[in-house]
Amino acid sequence: MNISFGTAERRGVAVALVALLLLSTVTGVAAAQSVRGASGTVVVEEGETVSSVDALAGSIVVRGTVTGDVSGVAGTIHVVEDGRVEGSISGAAGDVRIDGDVGGDVSAGSGNVRVAETAAIGGDVSVGAGYVRIDGRIDGDVRVGAETVVLGPNADIGGEFRYDAVRFTQDPAATVAGGVVEDSSLRGEVGSFTVPDWVATGYGLLANLLLGALLLAVFPAFSARIAGRVSDEPAKNGGAGLLTLVGGPILLTLVAITVIGIPLAVLGAVTFGLAVWVGAVYGQYAVGAWVLRRAERDDRWLSLVAGLLGFAILGLVPIVGGLFVFGALLLGLGALASELRDSFRARRRPGPSDRQTTFDESFGDSNAGSPPERTTGGR
């Protein structure tokens, strides 16, 4: 199989990579009733009021007022001294810093958590972190699991302070109304945070789009033939996909039985996992190509976007959506396994290599890329 990588393909890869870079660098300023989405930085400016923040971002900064909750995955979550969150804060971040007011609870998994002397938290605090310093007012209970925990001189805890730490320091001036309790059972139980469904779906779609763009750009003919296989023989490829999905782990287990086979089994497991991912992307792309072809549109890039976006939406439907996504996986994995097998056999046969397969030919238009036949005139 000859692989070509021309200007158009390089441009497609570049567009995909630039899209990822833009996602991580763009700065979004909160200007609506609620903030929801992915951005480089989300800022609620001073004097501004929003109803809630639910974001995947490099930083979430609250200088104004959030009347509801703040939830997100970020490098930094910071409520500045004049900032106010009337609801609760729930997040996963590298750093969480509270300098202002939080009316509800604070629940976070973080590398560092700091509650400054100017901070006031109306609810409970539950955090898991590497380093935690509390030097402000907390009206409720505190549960902390960390390597290092410090209660500063301005700490004023209205409830109980329960902790699990390798190093714990309490300033004599700190006030804890409910007492301080060391509790080793807290390990691994505090600071838990569930990533919102929309974040997981968006991240999965973005990763699949990037993988699909790379596959179409680097292996255009191979990808086109897989789409053709799915269109021509869906039942056969679905069966092959199920056989591959079940037989792969069994084969890896048999290889791992011997000591010398353990490294091969580990490498094989990684390869098999990647193959399943590639198969899932190919299956969704092939279905998208089939649907667009019914509408007389032959565009591999549009097929990729339509297929992946369509199945991402379907995946949100309970049970039924999962069955459709699983079906696309079987179709793509079966077509991938069959195409790899046939390509391997073709390489072993003597003779010239085949030319590149076009998108039209992959769906059965065998004359799409052939030169016109020579005809002879009649009498």
UniProtKB/TrEMBL annotation:
Residues 346-379 are annotated as: Disordered. Keywords: Membrane, Transmembrane, Transmembrane helix. The chain crosses the membrane at residues 202-222, 242-266, 272-292, 301-317. Residues 175-342 form the DUF8173 domain. Residues 354-369 have a biased composition (Polar residues). InterPro entries: DUF8173 (IPR058486). This is DUF8173 domain-containing protein. It comes from Halorubrum kocurii JCM 14978.
